Amino acid sequence: MESLANTVARRTFRELHGVVLSAGLMERTVKVRVPSLKWNKLLKKHFNNPQTYLVHDPNNSLRTGDVVSISPGFRTSQHKRHVVNHIIKPCGVPIGERPPIPSKEERETEREAKSAAKRERKALKKKVAMVETALERAERMVGKASKEIAARLKMGAVKRPSEELGR
């Protein structure tokens, strides 16, 4: 039996080849059909069982009919779990006239940059919220203090500042 580490490693480095069924209908997403076989125990025979995947195309560089290489990657949306590695055989427009497909390293650096920017925005938002709450507390304290001073002046327990100076 395979160890868990081997299973995970095999899944992460698995590369699938398929044909683009639809491109250009969704932003940065294509539908790819990957051929596969399914074993029928009763007939003891393999039958075609093609799988269809929604695949992330970062630069909208794929066209319908392209043969592409895809691999499981980070989850881009609810249904997209694969990303394009490279075009094996283009259909129609040559590869040189299309936007380039970013490499795995480029995709990872872009993703890390986006997450760093998000962390920075989140930290800034948290600081702004803390300052706003501190300001609200200070305003409440000033309001309470002014009410207390007004009440004491009314009772005569505290003299007005002008009376203390003798004016």
UniProtKB/TrEMBL annotation:
Q: Where is this region: Disordered?
A: 94-124
Keyword Ribosomal protein annotated: yes
This protein's GO CC annotations: mitochondrion; ribonucleoprotein complex; ribosome
Q: Which GO terms label this protein's molecular function in UniProt?
A: structural constituent of ribosome
Which SUPFAM superfamilies does the record cross-reference, listed alphabetically?
Nucleic acid-binding proteins (SSF50249)
Residue ranges annotated as compositionally biased, kind Basic and acidic residues, are 103-118
Q: Which Pfam families match?
A: Ribosomal_S17
* UniProt keyword list: Ribonucleoprotein, Ribosomal protein
* A GO BP annotation: translation
Keyword NAD listed? The answer is: no
At the top level of its lineage, which domain of life is listed?
Answer: Eukaryota
Regarding protein family, the annotation reads: Belongs to the universal ribosomal protein uS17 family.
- Protein name per Swiss-Prot or TrEMBL: Uncharacterized protein
| UniProt lineage | Eukaryota, Fungi, Dikarya, Ascomycota, Pezizomycotina
